[in-house]
Task: inverse folding
């Protein structure tokens, strides 16, 4: 989604991940001011889109208003968003406004905050947007399949005083598990995905298309909004020849800084706003590569420079965003709660001395066939045991079934809380809290450098993270892993604010 520029440049073949499809395509763009009205109608329905293009047939998807991603909704900070959602699917659905601090009744969680929208029915969402930033919307009814088939869209809340840039661009990142005819594989929720890394696909898209090149001009300043809409894939993007500055995470401003190690890491549901100064020479070409999974790096897209620069020099204007009206946690009076995430294949093996457990093998580690076969047999036994005990994953020893359950924590409204999280598994987990943003105050016992506000925090295997928040939004709120297969298999709890 590019709100100002849409140029045609030469195309070339691209293969996205293992088993991807060859295609040359520009990153698609939307016109300036898309969805600028205060009221929006969103239609959830089956359809077909040219995900792969070329000689491949269109892919059957589920989409919002006929596009993947769904329509980009843009509102101003403080404005009221009104959205009527019409369900033309053959099953129930909802819409969750991810990262927006909505009233509980507008949160889109089936049975917990609303009755699901039945086929042929509509639901009217209405809420104010207190925070500027990059957000998104998606279903929470059978989300591992509904999101996996294409139901999601970007929500941009514009600052009253935005930073000055030449272009404001949104890239919605997703991956798809496609067959050789570009159709979606139907193996949603299979046991291997559920108990391991989740549904990682073989074809990566930007804004619903396989990308090849993205046109830029020398001395241009671009705001690039990244949204990870994938079920499970974690992205680690490196911009060759460039040094983007992160100015917001999960919609919340942060002190501008370069990404650690030059790699922008986004777990599922996470967002990052970047300032990318285009410092390359006219006619140049630079790769954006995804290097998160060890030994499985691939080229996502190329930044291709026009023959003439936009101007002689880059702008020299401030890039720091104004703060949002979030209540600052008082750590001196914070009440502490420990939260442990457990389960999955390789559960209980963290102390065995294996580097990264199965996560390490998936990232490119090796082992001989006999050892692999024996371990897979043991993992399948563990998986079946988990399936017979109400779930594969758990929060504080409890595995959720559905969205309605007794609260794991009851927080007093207006009080500060520190949640000490422990990922006691062999897998990464992006942990999301509905209705609130929180400060990430420490990792591994060390204070974080930027004390970033987030609504989804990515935790590595066996990592400990402390987050702090003021419980100022009343209601029952989901607290879950946003690898959607993990959430569906039990890694979810409810936090009540009363």
Result:
């Amino acid at each position: 989604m590019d709100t100002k520029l849409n140029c045609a440049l030469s195309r070339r073949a691209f293969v996205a991940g293992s088993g991807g499809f060859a295609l040359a395509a520009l990153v698609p763009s939307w016109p300036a001011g898309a969805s600028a009205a205060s009221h929006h109608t969103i239609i959830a329905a089956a359809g077909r889109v040219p995900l792969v293009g070329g000689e491949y047939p269109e892919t059957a998807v589920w989409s919002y208003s006929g596009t993947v991603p769904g329509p980009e909704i843009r509102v101003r900070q403080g404005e009221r968003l009104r959205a009527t959602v019409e369900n033309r699917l053959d099953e129930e659905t909802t819409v969750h406004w991810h990262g927006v601090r909505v009233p509980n009744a507008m949160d889109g969680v089936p049975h917990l905050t609303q009755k699901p929208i039945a086929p042929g029915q509509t639901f009217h969402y209405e809420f104010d947007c207190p925070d500027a930033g990059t957000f998104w919307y998606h279903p929470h009814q059978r989300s591992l399949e509904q999101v996996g088939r294409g139901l999601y869209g970007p929500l941009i809340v514009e600052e009253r005083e935005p930073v000055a840039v030449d272009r404001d661009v949104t890239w919605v990142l997703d991956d798809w598990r496609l067959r050789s005819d570009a159709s979606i594989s139907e193996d949603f929720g299979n046991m291997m995905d559920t108990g391991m890394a989740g549904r990682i696909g073989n074809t990566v898209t930007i804004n619903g298309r396989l990308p090849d090149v993205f046109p830029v001009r020398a001395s241009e300043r671009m705001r690039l909004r990244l949204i990870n809409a994938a079920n499970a894939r974690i992205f680690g993007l490196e911009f060759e020849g460039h040094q983007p500055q992160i100015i917001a995470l999960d919609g919340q401003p942060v002190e501008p800084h370069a990404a650690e190690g030059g790699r922008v890491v986004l777990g599922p549901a996470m967002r990052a706003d970047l300032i990318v100064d285009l410092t390359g020479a006219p006619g140049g070409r630079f790769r954006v590569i995804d290097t998160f999974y060890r030994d499985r790096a691939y080229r996502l897209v190329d930044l291709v420079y026009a023959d003439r620069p936009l101007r002689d020099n880059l702008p020299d204007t401030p890039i720091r965003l104004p703060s949002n009206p979030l209540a600052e946690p008082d750590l001196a009076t914070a009440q502490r709660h420990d939260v442990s995430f457990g389960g999955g294949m390789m559960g209980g093996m963290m102390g065995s001395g294996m580097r990264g457990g199965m996560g390490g093998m998936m990232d490119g580690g090796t082992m001989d066939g006999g050892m692999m076969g024996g371990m897979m047999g043991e993992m399948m036994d563990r998986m079946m045991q988990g399936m017979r005990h109400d779930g594969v994953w758990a929060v504080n020893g409890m595995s959720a079934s559905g969205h309605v359950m007794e609260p794991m924590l009851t927080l007093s409204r207006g009080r500060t809380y520190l949640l000490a999280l422990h990922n006691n598994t062999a897998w990464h987990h992006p942990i999301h809290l509905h209705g609130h943003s929180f400060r990430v105050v420490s990792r591994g016992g060390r204070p974080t450098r930027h004390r970033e506000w987030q609504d989804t925090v990515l935790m590595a295997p066996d990592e400990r993270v402390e987050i702090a928040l003021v419980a100022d939004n009343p209601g029952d709120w989901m607290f879950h892993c946003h690898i959607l297969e993990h959430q569906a298999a039990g890694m979810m709890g409810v936090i009540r604010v009363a």
User: Anything to note?
Assistant: Residues 331-497 form a domain with the Immunoglobulin-like fold (CATH 2.60.40.420). The two ends are 40 Å apart (CA to CA). The mean pLDDT is 87. The first helix runs from residue 143 to 146.
